[in-house]
Amino acid sequence: MTELIKAYFWPLIGGIVGLLLAVLFIIFGFFKMLFVLIFMAIGITAGYYIQKTGILKNVFK
């Protein structure tokens, strides 16, 4: 089973992301879904920046 997941990891991730986008589109509609995705991208970018720079590591030492 783990070999199957390893072999098809990225297609599975793509399918899950597509499913989540479809559910968001059905529940919220296009513009609300776009709003959620924009803020999600901002959050991911901020988290990546915080991880790369280690800002919080220095603050909470």
**Helix and strand string, N-terminal first?**
HHHH
Oligomer: single chain
**Helix content estimate:** over 70%
Structural class: mainly alpha
Write down the overall geometry.
Answer: flat
Major sheet summary line: none
Q: How many β-strands, per DSSP?
A: 0
From the N-terminal CA to the C-terminal CA, the straight-line distance is 42 Å
Number of helices: 4
β-strand percent reads under 5%
Rg over CA atoms, rounded to whole Å, is: 17 Å
Overall pLDDT confidence: 87
Indicate the low-confidence ranges by residue numbers: none
Please give a structural write-up.
By secondary structure, this protein is mainly alpha-helical. It has four helices and no strands. It has helices spanning 2-7, 9-28, 30-53, 55-59. Helix 2 (9-28) packs across helix 3 (30-53). The chain starts with a helix and ends with a helix.
Identify the notable features of this structure and list them briefly.
61 residues, mainly alpha
Outline of this structure?
By secondary structure, the chain is an all-alpha fold. It is built from four helices and no strands.
Please outline the helices and strands.
Layout: H1 2-7, H2 9-28, H3 30-53, H4 55-59
Helix pairs in contact: 2-3
